[in-house]
Fold these 4 entries.
Entry 1:
Amino acid sequence: MTKLAPPVRTGSDLQLRSLRRAFGTTVALDGLDLVVASGELLALLGPSGCGKTTALRVLAGFERPEAGQVLLDGEDVVPVPANRRDTAMVFQSYSLFPHLTAADNVAFGLRMRKVSAPERRSRAAEFLELVGLPGHGGRYPHQLSGGQQQRVALARALALRPRLLLLDEPLSALDAQVRVSLREEIRRLQLELGITTVFVTHDQEEALSMADRVAVMNGGRLEQCASPTELYARPATDFVAEFIGTMNRVPARAGHGGVVEVLGVRLPVEGSAPAPGDVCALIRPEALDVTLDSGGTAKVMGTAFHGATTRVRVALADGTAVQADVPTHAATELAPGTAVSVRPHERPVLVARGATR
């Protein structure tokens, strides 16, 4: 694999200010504010209909917001047509021209920008090699695998040397092994080229493994934007806590002084303390210990092997179902119907009002 030359330019700063976009009575973006640093890869993540794809289309110039600004290096590009924004987009469906070779597909945008033929050929060959397809320039899309077609689409976008790279679920049509390989390749290229990148995905693993920061959206609004580690360990809202990873809702009782009692253990509350009363403690599976206890009131419902750990499903005395991750070597005795005790790790917990599930 060829080592990339230093970036032609550093990444551009991007700001989204109070963006609003509605389709009839459906509000897709409801005052969205985001800042993307130069050279950063930001993932937009959220459930279907949360507004992440609309936000990307606004950035690309395919949708025009009713209100708000998109500032690229301080310039509001909302009035600028898509073909003049100096951005490049990679789509889920590849969108290659079937009658053009791989090299001609990569060079297509350059031709539209009146780049000379020798420069087009040189740059197409360069970027095909950079994405791991040297010698494939003469092949047509139907002669390439899905992963190879997406690499051509990526090379086409990068060959433009854009100020902003936009990725619209580019890996969702690929099989699992190819997805992992290609997401590592995209991240490598993005880092070495220094291109500011916004990446839309519905796949949490992709977002958390690739992005510098992840913006979690819900109902057209931003719930939290933070590093993957912070999102997982310190979610800012109940929605983020339960959307990212797996989260148990465990019955608890809030007392005075920011303390909550859960499964017989008194723990400090993470964040603002709730009023005294019944709450739910939000606890990750790895923060619950499950041990054999012939007098225990909880019972094992089932197990799922996850390699070094096994996920154990347990029914608490009140019928609440929780999941706990235990070392696989310790899970051999936890057969369905086994009586156990469940205890949380002694660390601060996030609490929420509402019923358990």
Note: The first helix runs from residue 52 to 60.
Entry 2:
Amino acid sequence: MPSTVIEVRRRYRVDEEIAIIDAVHDALVAAFEIPAADKHVRLVSHEPHRFSHSPGLAQPELYTFVAVDCFAGRSVEAKRNLYRETVDRLGALGIPADHVTIVLRESAVENWGVRRGQAACDVDLGFNVNV
């Protein structure tokens, strides 16, 4: 059940925002093998002057930052798949690959409170973290 925040430097139409959220969620489903219904993705749109970017971007208004908080345990290959899937799916929406940054932050399952305040290590998550 990764918790993901997508940050962008411009306003998008509602249908575009939904497509961006779905693209990142679908990348998580493909790479981390989480259930499709396990969707915890937020999109935050910043005013451009409040969100700096790497110098030299051809279209700085398209810079997109994706932060994924998740349980520790995924393989390096699963992480590589997540990065590739995310960039490919956002690319299909017109966001250039070199305009996407992805940060993955891992925590032990006992550091997440889920399902009515239980430690995640004490519940059946319904998916395997070790992919």
Note: The longest helix spans residues 14-32.
Entry 3:
Amino acid sequence: MPFYFEAFVPASLSFLKDIITEPAFLMGLIAFVGLVALREKPHKILTGTLGPILGYLMLSAGSGVITSNLDPLAKMIEHGFNITGVVPNNEAIVSVAQKVLGVETMSVLVAGLIFNLLIARFTRYKYVFLTGHHSFFMACLLSAVLGAIGIHGWELILLGGFFLGAWSAISPAIGQRQTLRVTDGDDIAMGHFSSLGYYLAGIIGKLVGNNSKSTEEIEVPEKWSFLRNTTISTALTMMFFYVIAALVAGPEFVSSLSDGKNYIIFAVLCGLQFAVGVSIVYSGVRMILADLIPAFQGIATKVIPNALPAVDCAVFFTYAPTAVIVGFVSSFIGGLIGMLILGLLGGVLIIPGMVPHFFCGATAGVYGNATGGRRGAIAGAFINGLALAFIPALLLPVLGDLGFANTTFGDIDFGIIGILLGKLGEFFGTTGIYLLAALVLAVLIAPNFLSKNKNAINNPEYEE
């Protein structure tokens, strides 16, 4: 019997981890609970549950196409311009960390979900974080940093779970007013751990916008009207980038990536496939929103009053498709300039990761556009790109041995939280971590006493 029990516990943890880290299942589960709470008919429960699952799988498929086609672009740029350094990549650093932190990460992940639901139920931070893979990445970061400070066992699980659950509820709340501008009042929130970069882009946009027109209002002459088609304009833009990168890298190197295919043809195909991936993402997002938001009303009225779903950054792409491309390009340029500055300062070169600069830069462009139009999209995403260079460089020493894997966490929230915890632990030990936990707890419960309003904090009735 003890043997079976010991085998059952890791299997159970693995099962929970696979459910929680798969946003498709998590969204489906939330939609199911909401529809049951609304007492919908069985066939509506079935379709309403499958809709978000299929929508997110479609979004993931599109993201996979985008990511797989960004990889050769990054390699061509690195080879063509002879750049060597650290490439931020969440998946890569997590794969290294899991070799020594597997059980701790899964335990913190489960505890974090429970804390997030409790916080949403009993405080005004009523945001339920649904981007499971980012929760997994954050659980891994917390396990690594807290473990390096000297916190282990149940202490690590509870503290890590509390910080994960708290940030899962607080981070959407911080920028919810900006998010309402992005979505024109749709009842969703940002559920992605590069959120501080998006909110900063929104602030920058407001500062520089000065009545700048939206990226979506760009006037296009009749003969160029085909550029209004997002898929076509994305394809043309990305083909240009790929062809330039292929020419710089040279046919011999590109042939090693293309299995002997002509290097120009390979570059053109990558650009076209990238555009197809973006189109698939948009289709998946529309499917998610069509079913998740109505189903979530059951959660908001019956289970966790006034709750809001916090969803992946790609969900926001459909609100400003042109800003997505503007943001990506501006963020990448910011990343290149940040890399050059780090080189001049004698620091570790942070090579712009194409994946974070596309997904995070694009979202920063959408937020900058919402507050400052075209100028806001360009400036906000550019500053986001600089942050994606400097913050991972500052995080590297905090990660200790994990930082020698030639990679680091790429998104801004990971860097800021890792640096904050690491420095507190360095200067004040575990006392500093507990003081921070007490401060976070006070921030969570204070709004309950300061106002009788029961709505989610920073989520007023939207007014244009």
Note: The two ends are 63 Å apart (CA to CA).
Entry 4:
Amino acid sequence: MTDISLDPRLRADCFVLGRLSAGHLLLMNNRLFPWLILVPETEKTELYELDEVVLTLLVADINRISRLLKSAFPVDKLNVAAIGNVVSQLHIHVIGRSTTDPCWPGVVWGSGQTEPYDPSGRDRVIRRITEGLSPDRLQPSPWTGLPF
């Protein structure tokens, strides 16, 4: 475990669910899309800079949560991206998209299409995600509980 902290923008926009093999799993506070973010524990800002072992674990985590989103939510397509133009901390978006979502077929970033979760909706989605991951896969994170 390193002394890496979560970028303030991610902290403000997300709920921290726990830690997977290569980093922390966050839920974007936007009920319009099942939108997860993986944040590797690193000061590196680009995927190609990661150690091969960490990169392999990260890809396995991306695949694991991609399968979860496809099986647990009504999605037609997955968008997976590490953009980092606004938040330089390395993070990977895994977003479930539907042909009926308000941004389809465009991108969700900067679209202005945001509806925060109400507490019960947030708890239902978090439960669906955490139950979809085996208990040994999602460990506590020192960031857990942010921002709620």
Note: DSSP finds three helices and five strands in the chain.
